[in-house]
Design a protein that fits this description.
This protein is an alpha+beta fold. It contains 4 helices and 9 strands; from the N terminus they run βββαααββαββββ.
Length: 222
């Protein structure tokens, strides 16, 4: 019997936008439109090896229990290698994508290019969408990479241009969420109320290290 063919590409975990089912498609993104993203590299030895190390350090009875390593030891043991950076960079360049930055400790690559180049590299279609009051461009399905890089690439963010940080402006201030309610009791200014009693203002509270601390300031939107 013939052996089943092994796919030449594998999907990138968690790379499909979760909001796609709720979005309205506006058409395909222009192939010449700009696209930039961040590609994260897996730790040396793989994620499974790092998770196993964490488990042993955290498990009572393990020979490695509470035998923590220093920051320098972590970087030496688990930082992605220069060879990983080079192999991913070659693949990106072969797809007409440019590496604009290599992150500290080889943790990630910043990459830029055109939508057409990103579609070719990751085997996806990039569309324009309307969702949550925004017009964005994003991949219509999971990103994929060559199987040879599956142990090297940890994840990719930024192909979906939905902003993750909302920046209010003078004309579009960011309101609190519908369920926003300040906890009580709280102070309008620092030190107005001290935590000597519970929220019922009757039941005494113990001091913290011999001190009675003030309740948090509230009455404003962070």
């Amino acid at each position: 019997a013939l052996a089943q063919a092994v796919p030449s590409r594998v999907g990138v975990a968690k790379s499909t936008p979760t909001w796609l089912p709720k979005a309205r498609i506006l058409g395909k993104a222009s192939g010449q439109a700009a696209s930039s993203f961040t590609l994260y590299l897996a730790p040396k030895g793989g994620v499974a090896a790092l998770q196993a190390r964490v488990s042993k350090v955290s498990t009572p009875g393990s020979a490695s229990y509470r035998k923590y390593i220093s920051t320098a030891q972590y970087h030496k043991a688990y930082d992605p290698t220069a060879a990983s950076v080079a192999s991913v960079t070659r693949w990106l360049k072969s797809n007409k994508l440019q590496v604009t930055e290599v992150g500290a400790y080889n943790a990630y690559l910043r990459v830029s290019g055109t939508v057409a180049a990103v579609q070719s590299a990751f085997g996806v279609t990039i569309n324009r969408y309307q969702h949550d009051g925004q017009q964005v461009q994003a991949n219509a399905s999971a990103l994929s990479i060559p199987r040879a890089l599956s142990a090297t690439v940890l994840g990719v963010t930024g192909v979906d241009t939905t902003p993750h940080i909302m920046k209010p402006t003078a004309t579009t201030p960011a309101p609190p969420p519908p369920s926003f309610v300040n906890g009580r009791p709280c102070s309008i200014y620092y030190g107005q109320l001290t935590a000597s009693k519970q929220a019922n203002y009757v039941t005494p509270l113990p001091k913290f290290k011999g001190k009675t601390l003030p309740y948090a300031v509230c009455g404003y939107t962070g």
